[in-house]
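WARN no homologs supplied; continuing
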Amino acid sequence: MRGVVFLGNRKAEVREFSTPDPGPGQVLVRMKVSSICGTDMHFYRKSWTDLVAFRQSFNGSSDTITGHEPCGIVEAVGSHVMTVKPGDRVTVYQHVGCERCGFCRNGDVMFCPNRTGYGSVHNGSAADFTLVPERNCLGLPDALSFERAAVLSCAGGTAYQSINRLAPSGKDTMAIFGLGPVGLCATMFATARGAQVIGIDLIPERLELAKQFGAIETIDATQDDPLKVIQDFTGGKGVNTGADYSGNPQAQETMLACAGKGARLAIVGVGESFQVDTLRMMIMKQLTLMGSWIYNIGLHDEFVDFVLKKDLPLEKLITHRFCIEQGPEAFKLFDSGKTGKVIFTWENNSD
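OK structure emitted
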């Protein structure tokens, strides 16, 4: 089988691997669609030395296959597998937990102190096949295409949890900072709940996508002051709800500044640092500020149902499609920051 590996310093290559056989409790999934995530870029941009050191700290391999947003069909199962069978349509939850701690038992696998992940430690989904534990396989209804499911598998799920926690409604004006795939999903979800969304980014292509997904106003932060535009739009009241998906401290500071009294805010984008002095602003405005990271595995069926009932066209977030042999080209393009969702697709991926 073929798989994409990172070589450090923004280099990648496609290599040949042996197709693994599933052991007890394991499932071999044949890929139909696998998408690229912003988190992949953290590893793509690392030096080779830092990349190897990270993987070795988890007893991982230096030639680990990247990718953690897979959708496909079960090819084979190992012994003792009870909940999936060959031919089933599945996506795969990206973190592997211990199954014993309270976080894992509550579905918050991302908080497990012993968690590991696909594409960073375990061989991931930028490959013809991926081998995963049965417990990480999440079923997909026939009504949900593999392309829509791939968008949901990480970006969409992360956006859904943050929007679910903020609970915007028709009473709210919401500012969304950072219109990458997660921010664009959030735009779609918040709009579907009735909120008036203002999207803020630096890239014209992403601002245009936000308009297509329901944003009532977009702001190019390279041309206009987001705080001024938002104050004008809201009649000086500020927004009721806001979320930052960029990880940029300046965007996070602006989000706090444009928040109205009593606003609910979330920081979802992970950046290198966050040094905003928030305390006085939070007290005087009586703000609620929360973090939100990935999603509880138990939300999967809920957000799949939400997307189907609202008939949300998540596949329109996909701006570029590649075959797996084009792995280096795909990651280079996504690294430019000028795309929507970028996916690897296999023949008959919509079946």
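The first strand starts at residue 2 and ends at 6.
OK
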